[in-house]
Amino acid sequence: MTWNPRHPPRQDGRTFVVTGGNAGLGYFTAEQLARSGAHVVLATRNAARADVAASSIRGNVAGASINTLNVDVASLDSVRNAGARLADYGRLDGLILNAGATTGSGARQESVDGFELTMATNFIGHFALTALAWPALTRTAGSRVVGLGSLATLMVRPHAGNMQSLRSYNFFRAYAFSKHAMHGFILELDRRVRESAVDVSALLAHPGYAIDSRTLLRPGIAEFTPLERAAGIFAVGTQGKNRGAAPTVRAALDPSVSSGDFVGPQHLTQGRPTLQRPTGTSASREFGGHVWALAEEWTGLEFDV
Question: So which residues are the catalytic ones?
Answer without folding.
Answer: 175
